[in-house]
Structures are given as structure tokens and as C-alpha cells.
Amino acid sequence: MKAIQITMEESLLKAVDRRLRGRRHRRSAFIRDSVRQQLERLRLRDLEEQHRSGYEKQPEKKGEFDVWYRTQEWGEE
């Protein structure tokens, strides 16, 4: 692991410390986990944007997925 130095609003740092008080997590672990979560959110956002963009460039054609609708089981009897 590499040590880094970051700048953060004092109020945000105090909120983190209050949240961690009495827990086993340390500040560094909390910040690492938060960064991982944010990176995953950004990755998913990028995938959703690629998906949306793909359909804008090549929209679904009428009837394109009809064959799949006939093969799906919808749970209705």
C-alpha cells in the first residue's frame, strides 16, 4: 500500500470520525472503501451510458425481439 496525503473539509473529516467512533474501522479503511464504491458506481454509470448510446446509434427494430417474447415464460397460467 502507498501512503498519500489528501485535503478534506474539516467538517467532513469530523463526520467520518464521528461515524467511526467505537467501531473497528479506521479512517484510512473507510476512505479506501468509499473510493472503491465510488469507482464501481462510475464504472456502472459508464456501462449504462454505453448501452444507451448504442441504442441511440442503432435503435431497436420493430419486431426484432418478438421471437424472444414467444419463448419467455411469464408465470401466468
Description:
The chain is about 60% helix and about 0% strand. With about 80 residues, the chain is mainly α. The chain has a domain at about 25-60.
Please give the structural blueprint:
Layout: H1 10-20, H2 27-57, H3 66-71
What's the short version?
The chain has about 80 residues and is mainly alpha-helical. Helices cover about 60% and strands about 0% of the residues.
What is the strand tally? 0
Shape annotation: elongated
Return Rg in Å.
Answer: 23 Å
Helix content: 55-70%
Distance between the termini: 57 Å
Question: Major β-sheet, in short?
Answer: none
Key features of this structure:
77 residues, mainly alpha, elongated
